[in-house]
Every structure is written in structure tokens, then in C-alpha cells.
Design brief:
The protein has about 350 residues and is an alpha/beta fold. The protein folds into two domains: about 240 residues, 3-Layer(aba) Sandwich (Aspartate Aminotransferase, domain 2); about 90 residues, Aspartate Aminotransferase, domain 1. It has 13 helices and eleven strands. Helix 8 links the parallel strand 5 and strand 6. About 50% of the residues are buried.
């Protein structure tokens, strides 16, 4: 099996400049729990990007970020509406429901995105004590299907939420890839589009550990520091999280890394579309490709470059590119696929 595969951008290493930032922060002693100069500088950079009245809380994991954001906004009798493919619904082991007490209501979707029309039928029972109260819409940007919401699509969801006294949360585990795909600043498709709470990820894009939760409505973060502590997300040596975000934001490492990962996905898409016998199932907006592959070929491909099967019944797989994926990786992978297809006579030699 090759050293680099296409299973997940979580599998990639740490960007060299991020490692340097961690090493620099390792000199001497510093006050813990985020009251250090690196964390303070990272908070300032986030405020420069998103607005001065943005409240910033650093956490360790994406799940921790989503929990903190949602828990800060809701009571246990509220409902969170999300896509059925959302990470909070499928891959967080029930943690959002455990910590918030709120019900998750998944909405069926073909492309990872949910629309106001799909949500509206769930907006009922307001003020009726027998019903869980709709409280928040959570979307993922970029989605778990590799697609990206447009600014207008996010704005429409925010309008719907606010019309009903609800909030809009964005899981931005791959927010950098989305920003590059859209070609607009972060603020344009988050705060300015009506998002209330943002989980801002960096681990999938070259950081070692750490995420940030941004509140654009300070009233929502009144008790967030207590929720963070209770969820075991207050890291004593928080300087090593803050230190990563400084070059990530200030030097534009987020953009360099995400642009490369997205470009690698586009190259792979181009090569795959040359082949008969494989069907790309989703729009390749960011750094993920979903494709239906002849089932008997999947194990052989995985022996060469590891990746995950997304839907075993359909033979649908997910290929993720990363900031350190090389064009050589892409071309070698495409060559192997072509060879296996030829061997199985799925295409004409």
C-alpha cells in the first residue's frame, strides 16, 4: 500500500510552517488555558477576519467544536435540523445529543445540502409543549458529499431560521476548501450571510490539533466557557492550538493548502472522467470525489491506495485529496484504475 492514500484529509501530516509555529511556542513557560500571547494573537486574527464583536473559543476536536456551538445556543427541548449525512448525525457517536439533550432531526438529501423547502415541513409545533421545539439548523461547509453551499443558499437558510426565531450553525471542518471553491472571503459566506455560530476547522487542512468556535451573536456565548470546560475541551496548554492558527491565518497557509487539495481533486476528476465503467456521483466542488466503481475492483484498488467505501450496496467510494497529495499520486492512481478496468474488460483497449 502506498504511503499516501485517498481515505481522508485527516490522514495527512502537519504543514511544516505549522510545526515550526508549535516548536516556537514550546520555548519557556507560558500561562495556560488560552491566556497566552499566541492564543490572544490568534483571537485577534479571527476578529480581523470576521469582525471585532466575534467571540472565539478554541477546542481540541471538530466534535468538541460542534457540541460547544450547539449547546451554547439551545435548551434540551430544542431540535437541531441537519442533513442526514451531517457529521453530527452520522459520525459523532451521539455526542451532540448527549451533551445538549437536543433532538437531531435529519433531512434526506442527495448531495449533502439541505434547502429551505426541505426544512419548512419540519417547522411546526412552536409553543406546543408536547413537541420538541425547532431551535437550530446545522449545515456543513463543504458538505460530507464534497459539495459547497453558495452564498445565496446559505443566506436563504439563515433567513428561514431567523424568521422562526432559530439559529444557523455551520460545521466548517473543511471551511478552507469551501472558501477556495467559492473564491470569496470567509466572512462573506458565514457572518455576512447570516450564520450565527461557526465551527472553524483546521485539522483536515494541515494543522495538528485544534479547532475554533466563533459566535457572531455575543449573547449566544454567555455560558460557553463553562460548557467548554464540562466537555473536556479546555486544553491547559492552549498555546499550542493558538500558535498554529497564527501562521494559518496570518500567512494564508489555509488558502495555499486548500487550493492545492482542491486542485488535486479536479485533476483526479478529469482523469476519472476519461474512463468508462466509473461514474462520478457528486459535483466535485472541493477536495472530495464520490464515484461508483465495479465492486470487485475496490479491494484491489484499496491495496494500492487506501480509501473508504461510502455505500457498499452501490459500490460508491469516496476519494479525498489533501494539502500534501501530489500530482504523481493522482496520475499513478488513475493509471492503476485504468489497468484494472482493462483487465476486467470494462473499457476497450
Amino acid at each position: 500500500m502506498r504511503e499516501r492514500g485517498f481515505a481522508s484529509d485527516n490522514n495527512s501530516g502537519i504543514h511544516p510552517e505549522i510545526l515550526k509555529a508549535i516548536e516556537s511556542a514550546n520555548a519557556g513557560h507560558s500561562i495556560g488555558y488560552g491566556d497566552d500571547k499566541w492564543s490572544k494573537e490568534a483571537v485577534r486574527l479571527f476578529k480581523d477576519e470576521f469582525g471585532e464583536n466575534t467571540d472565539v473559543f478554541f477546542v481540541l476536536t471538530g466534535t468538541g467544536a460542534n457540541i460547544l456551538g450547539i449547546q451554547s445556543a439551545l435548551q434540551s427541548f430544542h431540535t437541531v435540523i441537519c442533513a442526514e449525512t451531517a457529521h453530527i448525525h452520522t459520525d459523532e457517536c451521539g455526542a451532540p445529543e448527549k451533551f445538549t439533550g437536543s433532538k437531531l432531526l435529519p433531512v434526506a438529501t442527495q448531495n449533502g445540502k439541505i434547502t429551505p423547502a426541505q426544512i419548512e415541513k419540519h417547522l411546526h409545533g412552536f409553543g406546543f409543549e408536547h413537541h420538541s421545539q425547532p431551535g437550530l439548523i446545522s449545515i456543513t461547509q463543504a458538505t460530507e458529499m464534497g459539495t459547497v453551499y453558495s452564498v445565496d443558499e446559505i443566506g436563504a437558510l439563515a433567513d428561514l431560521a431567523h424568521q422562526h426565531g432559530m439559529y444557523l450553525h455551520m460545521d466548517g471542518a473543511r471551511i478552507a476548501n469551501a472558501a477556495v471553491s467559492l473564491g470569496v472571503p470567509f466572512r462573506t459566506f458565514t457572518r455576512d450571510a447570516g450564520v450565527d455560530i461557526l465551527s472553524f476547522g483546521g485539522t483536515k487542512n494541515g494543522m495538528m490539533i485544534g479547532e475554533a468556535v466563533l459566535f457572531f451573536n455575543p449573547a449566544l456565548s454567555l455560558y460557553s466557557k463553562y460548557f467548554r470546560k464540562q466537555a473536556a475541551q479546555l486544553f491547559s496548554k492552549m498555546r499550542f492550538v493558538g500558535a498554529q492558527f497564527v501562521p494559518y491565518l496570518r500567512e494564508g497557509i489555509w488558502k495555499i493548502n486548500a487550493a492545492h487539495a482542491n486542485r488535486m481533486a479536479k485533476i483526479l476528476e478529469t482523469e476519472i472522467r476519461k474512463l468508462k465503467g466509473i461514474e462520478i456521483t457528486q459535483s466535485v466542488d472541493a477536495n472530495g470525489i464520490f464515484a461508483i466503481v465495479p465492486k470487485e475492483l475496490i479491494p484491489q484498488l484499496q491495496n494500492e491506495y487506501f480509501f473508504y467505501t461510502w455505500n457498499e450496496q452501490r459500490g460508491e467510494v469516496r476519494w479525498m485529496t489533501s494539502f500534501d497529495t501530489s500530482e504523481e499520486d493522482i496520475m499513478n492512481f488513475a493509471h492503476i484504475i485504468k489497468g484494472l478496468l482493462n483487465d476486467k474488460l470494462y473499457i476497450t483497449v
